[in-house]
Amino acid sequence: ERRVTGPLHRIFGGTRLAHTEGPHVYRRDGWYYLMTAEGGTSWSHAVTVARARNLTGPYEADPAGPLLTSAGNERLPLQKAGHGSLVTTPDGEWYLAHLLARPLGPLGPCVLGRETAIQRVVWTADGWPRLDGEPPAGDGGGPLPRTVVPGPALPPAPAPRPPVRDDFDRPRLAVPWATLRRHPDPSWLNLTERPGHLRLRGGQSLGSTHGQSLVARRQQAKEFDFSARLEAAPRSPLQMAGIVHYYNSTLWHYLHLTWDESLGRVLRVGLCAHGRYFEPAPPVAVPPGAVDLRLSVRGAQGAFAWRGSRVTGWRRIGPDLDVTRLSDESATLGDPSTGHFTAWGFTGAFAGMCAQDLTGARMIADFAWAEYRHTPPGADEAG
Question: Would you tell me which CATH number, out of the four given (3.40.980.20, 3.40.50.80, 3.30.420.40, 2.60.120.200), belongs to the domain 165-374?
Fold first, then answer.
């Protein structure tokens, strides 16, 4: 049995930045270094360091201030920098892994969510850690996050990049894909029943917090295209399948194939803003057979398009989409002046495929392929 014993020691009360959390303790050259996250998790986020000769203190905060922060420099591309952890290489090089965000413009919405970055660390002659390299232009200098960091003197060990296109020709989902609150299970997700296809059986609505048939991957760039080929035969307005730009169960943009009592098989654009569902455009009748669906995102703006076996080229459907709705800031609900919040946003947006069947018949939706492609700024969106 392993358990904590002995007296409780309060070793550090934090600095003036407040909101102290996420402690790590390191031992180096006879000192105990206490690294904490401070300043809250938003624009004032920071990494602070204190040290003591004894594990239980007293700890002295670094007189130079935070080791890392973006606070007060709204034009930096890397914001909300904080909550770090030190690592050392076999050759004695030091690095700091930490959280940050890349907003859409100065202090803009963070659609990409929390991300992870790394900084090289050096030690001063009197034993304090500092970020290595030339700081970016801004107030504060040293603690500002670097956008270019020299790598360690280690053999290259590149991780394989996931392919742009997934043809679903393996018995398991590839690494980038994630499911929502339930593990992949043949009862709702299958990659072998129809080889070369991802088969989903319709689950609960996108507004549900359980039983969703949703497979998605994280948005990793401010500009990207996500597309997929879908085959489905809805026979009720309560059956649908398509592609979705998803933040949470109350924030999403959905292009889906469904049934209309007057038009037959149609495509609809459904938007959900903090639980309020609306359709900004009329449904579009589509011919039988497979249909290709595409989401294009360019910064704060998105758009859906489609094409079928009898349609030449991509056709826009619906209006321009406000992507900022799918950001950490939009998902965070509360009153900063009181510190009382009812919802938090950290995950960023996802792009993926899903199917719903509110009749309980568990309609089959087959996806032959999916592509996620980063788009360089200024790329042609037509075609």
Answer: 2.60.120.200
